[in-house]
Design a protein that fits this description.
With 341 residues, this protein is α/β, with parallel strands linked by helices. The chain is built from 14 helices and eight strands. It has one domain: Rossmann fold, CATH 3.40.50.11550.
Length: 341
């Protein structure tokens, strides 16, 4: 009996480790692999290579750069602005703060939503933003930062601090990590009967399996984790679908609250996630559009590091319309983002 118990315990540990690896791999894949398909040369109207440079904002519909002032005027007209980052790139935080500050300067009261916080930390996040006497460490513990995100809070603290100073709302976008793990471990069909799905309001949600999304994400999963089996890829895909659908649900809920209010200057809603969650407008933006029956003005901004060695890759991003806009920033202290495949 003792030997049986030990074997069962060891199997449980192995299963847990596999699930954690799946979640970690999923986060890396969705956040870090998006741009780039077949190679080609995107060119300007004159037939010459597009002149890329740091802090350039490129309209992927035209391939032309736009001025910050003209772009700000467009952003002020939106319901939702999707900012997709390379994780741990401080220049992308700076870019997001620039957008928020320009929206405020335009007379608006932006709302912020962040992937880095889970739904199970929303109450603590609200308390912290309201000015409740809570030190930094108490806040991180209450918001379950280590469990839901795990990276350095310092990377994202400037955004939270800015929102707190201006009394802006901040929505936790991510379904709780334990919920995502259930899907990654058991698959969506089995997970739907788990009490946690009902607890977090996802039991009756329509998790759309979009064929274009499926093809794109599976391609990235196979490029980054080529030794996985079909079942592993399927559960990773389904976990990704649940996360993106949950994020879309969060944004729609906030936008409806903004629309139902009396403040005509409230908004836009600024969504801040890894760039993989907005790539080609598929993961979150398309789900938001579906939930609002196309009644939404929104724009996606894919932020990425500029480096002279990435010209061809950047041209592909513009040609393939990785988002509505490509925003080129300096390379982070950690270097260029990892790519696979």
């Amino acid at each position: 009996m003792y030997r049986t118990a030990v074997l069962l315990s060891m199997r449980a540990v192995i299963v847990t480790l596999k699930v954690l690896l799946v979640i970690g791999a999923l986060c890396f894949t969705v956040a870090c692999t998006s741009g780039g398909g077949a190679r080609s040369s995107a060119t300007s109207q004159g037939g010459y290579p597009a002149p890329f440079k740091e802090w350039q904002i490129i309209d992927t519909a035209t391939g032309q750069s736009v001025s910050l002032d003209l772009w700000t005027a467009l952003l002020l007209q939106q319901d939702i602005i999707y900012l997709g980052e390379e994780h741990h790139n401080r220049f992308h935080i700076d870019a997001a703060m620039m957008v928020l500050q320009r929206l405020e300067a335009g007379g608006r009261t932006p709302a912020l939503a962040m992937e880095m916080f889970g739904w199970d930390g929303q109450a603590a996040l609200d308390q912290y933003l309201s000015g409740l006497d809570m030190n930094r460490q108490e806040f991180l513990e209450a918001v379950r930062w280590r469990q839901n995100w795990g990276g350095l809070f310092e990377d994202y603290e400037p955004l939270v601090r800015l929102a707190k100073e201006h009394h802006w709302t901040v929505d936790a976008m991510n379904p709780p990590k334990p919920l995502v793990r259930i899907v990654a471990k058991n698959g969506l069909v089995q997970a739907e009967s788990d009490p946690m799905m009902a607890q977090w309001g996802m039991k009756d949600e329509v998790i759309v399996d979009d064929p274009i999304y499926r093809a794109r994400i599976l391609q990235q999963l196979q490029a980054c984790h080529g030794k996985g089996g079909d079942n592993l890829y399927q559960t990773m895909l389904e976990a990704s679908m649940v996360r993106d659908e949950g994020m879309a649900k969060t944004l729609v809920h906030r936008l409806k609250r903004i629309r139902s209010g009396t403040d005509t200057m409230a908004g836009p809603l600024v969504s801040y996630t890894g760039a993989g969650h907005i790539q080609y407008n598929l993961p979150v933006p398309k789900r938001v559009t579906r939930r609002l029956a196309d009644q939404v003005r929104q724009v996606s901004v894919y932020m990425t590091s500029f480096d002279a060695g990435r010209i061809e890759e950047l041209q592909d991003m513009v040609r393939d319309k990785v988002a509505d806009y490509l925003w080129l920033t300096p390379v982070s202290e950690r270097g260029l983002p990892r790519r696979c495949g």
